[in-house]
UniProtKB/TrEMBL annotation:
Keywords for this protein: ATP-binding, Kinase, Nucleotide-binding, Transferase
Transferase listed as a keyword: yes
Domain of life: Bacteria
Record-given protein name: Ribose 1,5-bisphosphate phosphokinase PhnN
Its biological purpose: Catalyzes the phosphorylation of ribose 1,5-bisphosphate to 5-phospho-D-ribosyl alpha-1-diphosphate (PRPP).
Organism: Ruegeria halocynthiae
Protein encoded by which gene: phnN
Pfam families per record: Guanylate_kin
Amino acid sequence: MTQGRLIAVVGPSGAGKDSVMLGLCGALPDLHLVRRVITRAPELGGENYEAISFAEFEDLATHGAFAVHWSAHGLQYGIPCSVNDQLKRGRDCLVNLSRKVLPGAAEKFPRFVVLNITAKPETLLRRLTARGRENRSEIAERLAQAEKPLPEGLKVATISNDGPLTETVARAASALQPVSVNR
């Protein structure tokens, strides 16, 4: 059996990564959606994540519970090592990652693909404001980060999410399918 792909979904805050990921899981039911561990309060929503304290996170990280982990925007994020079991079973795994961990993840996972979700600055601003998780200063910081390029040398499919979600999901599914066919 061929090992599954780790499909890293990246893009600026407000690009709609979580919505696209859920849509992809509906369009491609064999995908496994990886649930991140985050030091964010559980009531802040957005994605389905495991909310834990900073102390719990540090303990898990120290004991090797994460395949990948990083900090961003004052929070800690981790991808549980259980992702390796899914990949060994031949399942493609979809995970929301930070751009800064892509090179290390590409080294760690042999079948690594990046799905870069983008949106125009005005779309990002509208979405960030509507979700109500950040203040103006934090939104400005996230918008400034949106223009940062991806690391070079990665297999990347870039999809714009400015239009209807169904169209974005269809384009993303199509971009991922040719690789799946050649397993």
